[in-house]
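User: Reviewer 2 asked us to show a designed sequence for the structure in our supplementary figure. I'm pasting the C-alpha cells here. Could you produce the per-position amino acids so we can include them in the response letter?
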C-alpha cells in the first residue's frame, strides 16, 4: 500500500492510497473527508437530542446505559424499542434520499434533476396507492407496490426520453410530464375510494415515521446493504459521465450501460424510502446541493450528500415531534425546511 498526493477533481491535493501494484486505488479529498466527519458529528448530536427528549425525558447517561444493555424496565423500552428504531430509520432513509438525489443530479448535470422532480417518487406513491386502495394491502404489500411503481415509472421515463441515448435535460422534461400525469391519477384514485381508506392513504402519503419500528428497519437495512455498495462502485464511472458521453467512452466507460445501472440504483433508493415511510419530499433535491457547497466541490459528492440527507431527515423528524403542540408527519416538515433551504440556495446562486 502506498500513498501520494494527487491534485484532481476539485483541484485540491488529495492523498491516494494504492494497493496491489496500483491495480486498486482510493483517493481522499481531505475537505470532503472533513465535511463528512462534521456531518456525522451533527447527526450524533441530533440523535442524542432525539433519544433524550419526549414525553418521557431522559438524561444522556440513561440513554447510554440503555444502548449498552445496562438499563431495565421503562428506560430500556423507551430508548431501545421506541426511539432507537425510529432514529435509525430516519438516518438510513435520509441517507438513501441524499444518495439518490446526488446520483440523478450528477446524471442530468442539473440541480433540478432529483427523483422528486423527475417523478420517480410520484411513481412509487402511485404503486403503493394502487395496492392500498385496490387490494387493501398490508405494510409489505404496500412496500412492494411502491417499489414496483418506482421501477415502472423509471422505465417509462427512460424509454420516452431515449433518443440514441439519454440526455439529462430531456430526462427532466419527460419526468416532469410523467409526474404531472401520475399526480392526477393519484388524486383520482383517492377521490374514488371510500372515506376511511382515502383518509388512511392520504395520511400515509404525507410521509411519516410514526409507528415504524424494528419490523420495518430490518428490510430497509438489508436492501441498503446491497444498494449503497453498488452506488459507490458506480461512482467512478459516474464522474467520467459528467464529462460527457464521448469523453466517457474514450476512457473505456460504457455510457448507456453505466447510466442505466445508476438509474436503477437511484430509483431503488427512492422507492425503498417511499415503500417504508411514504413519499418524503425535498430531501433528495436539497441535500446534494447543500453538501456540495459545504465541501466546495465542483459536482455532487455521494458520501456528504447521504450524510446531509440523514441530518435533514433526522432533524426534521425531531422538529415534527416536538416543535408544535401536535405531532406532524415528517413529510410536512421536510417540505417546509427543504423549501427554505432551496430558496436560500437560489438566492446564493443568484448572488454568485
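Assistant: Here is a per-position design you can include in the supplement:
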Amino acid at each position: 500500500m502506498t500513498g501520494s498526493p494527487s491534485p484532481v477533481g476539485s483541484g485540491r491535493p488529495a492523498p491516494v492510497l494504492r494497493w496491489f501494484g496500483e491495480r486498486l486505488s482510493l483517493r481522499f479529498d481531505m475537505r470532503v473527508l472533513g465535511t463528512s466527519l462534521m456531518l456525522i458529528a451533527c447527526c450524533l448530536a441530533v440523535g442524542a437530542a432525539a433519544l433524550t427528549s419526549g414525553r418521557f425525558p431522559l438524561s444522556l447517561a440513561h440513554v447510554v446505559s440503555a444502548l449498552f444493555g445496562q438499563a431495565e424496565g421503562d428506560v430500556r423500552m423507551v430508548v431501545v424499542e421506541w426511539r432507537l428504531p425510529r432514529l435509525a430509520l430516519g438516518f438510513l432513509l435520509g441517507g438513501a434520499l441524499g444518495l439518490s438525489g446526488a446520483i440523478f443530479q450528477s446524471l442530468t448535470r442539473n440541480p433540478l434533476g432529483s427523483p422528486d422532480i423527475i417523478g420517480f417518487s410520484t411513481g412509487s406513491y402511485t404503486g403503493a396507492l394502487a395496492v392500498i386502495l385496490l387490494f387493501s394491502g398490508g405494510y409489505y404489500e404496500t412496500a412492494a407496490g411502491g417499489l414496483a411503481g418506482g421501477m415502472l415509472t423509471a422505465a417509462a421515463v427512460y424509454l420516452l426520453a431515449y433518443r440514441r441515448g439519454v440526455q439529462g435535460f430531456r430526462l427532466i422534461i419527460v419526468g416532469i410530464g410523467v409526474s404531472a400525469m401520475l399526480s392526477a391519477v393519484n388524486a383520482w384514485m383517492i377521490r374514488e375510494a371510500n372515506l376511511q381508506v382515502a383518509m388512511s392513504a392520504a395520511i400515509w402519503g404525507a410521509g411519516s415515521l410514526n409507528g415504524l419500528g424494528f419490523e420495518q428497519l430490518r428490510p430497509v437495512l438489508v436492501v441498503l446493504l446491497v444498494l449503497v455498495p453498488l452506488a459507490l462502485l458506480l461512482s467512478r464511472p459516474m464522474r467520467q459521465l459528467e464529462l460527457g458521453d464521448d469523453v466517457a467512452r474514450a476512457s473505456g466507460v460504457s455510457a448507456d450501460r453505466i447510466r442505466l445501472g445508476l438509474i436503477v440504483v437511484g430509483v431503488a433508493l427512492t422507492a425503498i424510502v417511499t415503500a417504508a415511510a411514504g413519499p418524503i419530499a425535498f430531501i433528495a433535491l436539497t441535500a446534494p446541493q447543500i453538501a456540495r457547497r459545504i465541501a466546495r466541490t465542483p459536482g455532487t459528492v455521494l458520501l456528504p450528500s447521504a450524510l446531509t440527507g440523514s441530518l435533514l431527515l433526522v432533524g426534521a423528524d425531531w422538529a415534527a415531534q416536538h416543535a408544535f403542540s401536535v405531532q406532524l408527519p415528517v413529510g410536512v416538515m421536510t417540505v417546509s425546511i427543504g423549501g427554505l433551504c432551496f430558496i436560500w440556495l437560489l438566492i446564493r446562486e443568484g448572488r454568485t
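For the response letter, you might also mention the following. The radius of gyration is 21 Å. The chain has a mean pLDDT of 84.
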